[in-house]
Amino acid sequence: MNKEIKKEDGTQNGILTLDVFQKDREIVIKSAIAGVTGKDLDISITNDSVTITGNRKEEGEERGKNYLYQEINWGTFSRKVILPEKVNAEEAKATLKNGILIIVLPKLNSS
From residue 71, how far is each of 3, 14, 29 by CA, in Å? Predict the structure, then answer.
């Protein structure tokens, strides 16, 4: 089942699935976003939230497909995460490797 939300303009926006966990000094966000390149991603980080938006483009789109299953969200997706504690947005790091996005957010009060 596709998870989607309607935007103000009436188009659909897929919801990005992710894992969020914390360590002693950092909060980590992981998401499987296969088929998306770094240029198709926008990550906005503040001291108390992270917003990830992007676009997954379908290659070789065919007309008149007769789907038996359709579970991949093609097109735009987004997700906003409210963080459980403040982070240092300036020191955050994001990597995208083998279709896995990892965002590491150092906690502000980790010293």
Answer: 9, 11, 23
Query: Can you tell me the distance from the alpha carbon of 39 to that of 17, in angstroms, rounded to the nearest whole number?
Result: 19
The whole-number average pLDDT for the span 37-60 is 91
Give residue for tokens 């997954």.
Answer: 56
Domain 4-58+71-102 classified CATH 2.60.40.790? yes
Q: What is the pLDDT of residue 46?
A: 96
Residue at token pair 């097109």? 75
Contacts for 37 with CB less than 8 Å, ≥ 6 apart = 96
Residue 94 has pLDDT above 90, yes or no: yes
